Automatic annotation (TrEMBL):
UniProt name for this protein: Galactitol-1-phosphate 5-dehydrogenase
Species of origin: Variovorax robiniae
Record-stated family: Belongs to the zinc-containing alcohol dehydrogenase family.
Cofactor(s) listed: Zn(2+)
Short name of any one Pfam family annotated for the protein: ADH_N
Alphabetical keyword list: Metal-binding, Oxidoreductase, Zinc
PANTHER family, A to Z: L-THREONINE 3-DEHYDROGENASE
Database matches in SUPFAM superfamilies: GroES-like, NAD(P)-binding Rossmann-fold domains
Coiled-coil residue spans: none
Domain spans labelled Enoyl reductase (ER): 16-352
Gene3D superfamilies: Medium-chain alcohol dehydrogenases, catalytic domain, NAD(P)-binding Rossmann-like Domain
Length: 363
């Protein structure tokens, strides 16, 4: 069947103005370009602020950077994929010319672009992407699950930065999508115990499904004491902070043992402020604070991506418990508005299906 000239997409016209409309299918593929038929696209936590508050880098833009699909067409020089291949798409478009890129630190590129914020992304029926950004996966992995690989790769990227050893105690602060994968990947790394901390009991239930040994509600008055008790009084060897707020960062510092390591994934959306006693813990306990950004390494788009596909294929990792809603792409404007207004409750990961209009499915 020939590729259509037009497609449906969720198009951001201005901050807070997302519309479902008809646009042209990307054309004029370069020698190393591909056209992908998008089968599933997820909402990342960063998409909420990007779509509803700050906006993208130009308008109009098609948002969405967590997606998977089928290769529809390829440029004349493409050799790593072919039409019909099932692929996850890495959204970073590094320059491949700067010092960071030459060192293989693609996440730190000086002059990058990005699908879904700087150029059109995956909230559409088709997307154009460089062939090097496509990662093939087998038929045994569903498109909805493949669309979550980018989130999981962010966590694995941070774990690769530290010396996480079998038997280490790990505390995960904040159980959203990143926290869910942090619990599961820490468990797969041999950590014990794996402690999950969140204020929402439904998120803690999700952490248990991911393999958390101990779940602690962050609203507990003795939160820090509970974490230390769970680690024999010492504190966690490794803390994975995915909450992205001051309360989460404060908890992470108090959760770490002396000379422990804290990996910080969560972005700051306000001033980062610590009480003097909390800051003193960083100094006096010689804590290691490790920033982790994105999910890319050698070979591009990263060992993380290829490792995760193997884990999913082997049945060691599943995103199914994380996916709470599967919706047609036409619902995107309404769902983004409701999430921003906090009236879209009980969700963890929302997946859009750009082709067809299925009945709403709850998982």
């Amino acid at each position: 069947m020939a590729t259509p000239m037009n497609m449906q997409a969720a198009v951001l016209k201005a901050a807070g103005d997302l519309r479902y409309e008809t646009v042209a299918v990307p054309s004029a593929l370069g020698p190393q370009d591909t056209l992908v038929k998008v089968m599933a696209a997820g909402i990342c936590g960063s998409d909420i602020g990007r779509v509803m508050v700050t906006g993208t880098y130009r308008f109009p833009t098609i948002p969405g950077h967590e997606f998977a699909g089928v290769v529809e067409a390829v440029g004349s020089g493409v050799g790593n994929v072919k039409p019909g291949d099932r692929v996850a798409i890495a959204p970073l478009l590094p320059c491949m010319k700067c010092d960071a890129c030459h060192r293989g630190n693609y996440s730190l590129c000086d002059d990058y672009s990005f699908l879904g914020s700087r150029t059109d992304g995956g909230f559409a029926q088709y997307v154009k992407a460089p062939a090097r950004n496509l990662v093939r996966f087998p038929d045994s992995i569903g498109f909805e699950e493949a669309a979550t690989i980018e989130s999981a790769a962010i966590i694995l990227h941070g774990i690769h930065k530290i010396n996480l050893r079998a038997g280490d105690s790990v505390a995960v602060i904040g159980i959203g999508a990143l926290g869910y994968f942090a619990v599961r990947l820490a468990k797969l790394s041999g950590a014990r115990p794996v402690i999950a901390v969140d204020i929402d009991e439904s998120k803690l239930a999700m952490a248990r499904e991911a393999g958390a040994d101990i779940c602690i509600n962050a609203s507990a008055a003795d939160l820090h004491q509970q974490i230390r008790a769970a680690t024999g009084g010492a504190g966690a060897d490794v803390v994975l902070e995915t909450a992205g707020n001051n309360a989460g960062r404060e908890t992470a510092i108090h959760a770490a043992r002396k000379q422990g390591t804290i990996v910080i994934y969560g972005s700051a959306h306000q001033d980062v402020v610590f009480k003097p006693a909390t800051f003193e813990r960083v100094l006096r306990n010689e804590l290691h604070l490790v920033g982790s950004w994105n999910s890319y390494s050698v070979p591009f788009p990263g060992k993380e991506w290829f490792d995760l596909i193997r884990m999913i294929e082997a049945g060691e990792l599943s995103a199914r418990p994380l996916i709470s809603h599967v919706r047609p792409l036409s619902d995107a404007p309404r769902i983004f508005k409701e999430i921003a207004e906090r009236s879209f409750g009980g969700y963890s990961k929302v997946i859009f299906l750009p082709h067809g209009t299925p009945e709403p499915v709850e998982h």
